[in-house]
């Protein structure tokens, strides 16, 4: 993979995504959600801050996933279908350059949107807390890394399956990855044992998405160690690289 060529594709991808209406619709809705959370006035001041943080961080996480899936779902298959990929690959650009460029460009845009929402939340909280709550930033950083993992999954499955199937598989894996082993055992206790064991095996192979959710700690003003943030980011990025390498293999073998 050539870094310069990859960044060129990433830059082009950002420009393409900025022309998509869905990006602005989702951004508007997420901004509206964070702003609306501050209008809840049926609680005491301390409880109101807790509710604002809880609703806003949940909304940021949800819209982050929606941003990621909506922008990446059609990123590669759409260009193959419309044959716009061929002029790019005719140049000295490898398939790996193209794939990583698409991924990095899209995830850079998603991350920027997430931090715009984080900034809005910090502004909303300031009149209540009387200080700038920088603890919001690591929470949103981990949400961004989680979105990167989901984005890598979308890239991978979009090369193998249809759009509906890609969405279904990605969301299924995301949900299973966020559940505890005991809870999965409880949910699947009425199904055949082989199916329950298969789901548990999938769970073991998936990243632990609950690691990336530190909302409860932030909501209750508990300090999250910097070592945990660093380790979790690296943990997530390892999964991203692993999934993208698998995507490279699939893409290289695909007949265009």
List the defining traits of the structure above.
single chain; 256 residues; mainly alpha; 12 helices; globular
Structure characterization notes:
The chain has 256 residues and is mainly alpha-helical. The protein has one domain. The chain is 78% helix and 0% strand. It has helices at 3-17, 21-37, 45-72, 75-81, 85-90, 95-129, 136-158, 163-178, 181-187, 193-205, 215-219, 226-253. Helix 7 crosses helix 8 (163-178) and helix 7 (136-158) packs parallel to helix 12 (226-253).
SSE layout and pairings?
Layout (H helix, E strand, L loop, with lengths): L2 H15 L3 H17 L7 H28 L2 H7 L3 H6 L4 H35 L6 H23 L4 H16 L2 H7 L5 H13 L9 H5 L6 H28 L3
Class from secondary-structure proportions: mainly alpha
* Main sheet makeup: none
Query: Compute the gyration radius: what is it?
Result: 20 Å
Number of helices: 12
Oligomer: single chain
What is the compact description of this entry?
By secondary structure, this protein is an all-alpha fold. 78% of the residues lie in helices and 0% in strands.
